[in-house]
Amino acid sequence: MTSDISTTDNGATDGNGVTDSIGTGGSRAARFRTARRRTALAAGLALALGVGVTAQASAGSPRSVSGKPSDNITRIADFYGAYIDAVTDEGGDKLADELRKHYLTPAFQKELAAWEDKNHANGVLQAQNVPLAWKVTDNGTADYTEAVVTLTWGSEKTTLIVDMTRGSHKIFHIGTKGA
What we know:
This protein has helices at 28-48, 52-59, 72-88, 93-103, 106-119; strands at 12-13, 19-20, 133-138, 144-153, 156-165, 171-176. By secondary structure, the protein is of the alpha+beta class. The longest helix has 21 residues, at 28-48. It starts with 11 loop residues before the first strand and ends with a strand.
């Protein structure tokens, strides 16, 4: 890999302390291009080292999230995002119940209630507390959508399998891997 960055300083410095790395005859535009190359190289190095998200966030880059209501992975991600917000927010219990009614099949709501009574935990999260982060990944299938939902509590992670019908877009199963 070659680099445009030189480790020696053989250029001139203007009155503002800006070094003209292409020599004393360089223009301000050339210095700007060199600075952009340095920034791009630093960003590339940061991504290669796995610190891209931190570098992006600290640089103030705008983030975007997209989806569409016809896509089951979007719907599962929307459900988990809204549900986690509801159970985290003060007084969000009613909203969490309404989200369950909207996104879960009636039969699965009953099954989940029985699981919760037996396990003394939140059936949607398969836990007694609320995760700090979540991620939804398509695991694909033919007759229904299977998603892998990863819930993160600090250094601990739980992986759930969530199944959703293709037609009604309702969740009919939430379980851990192998269950």
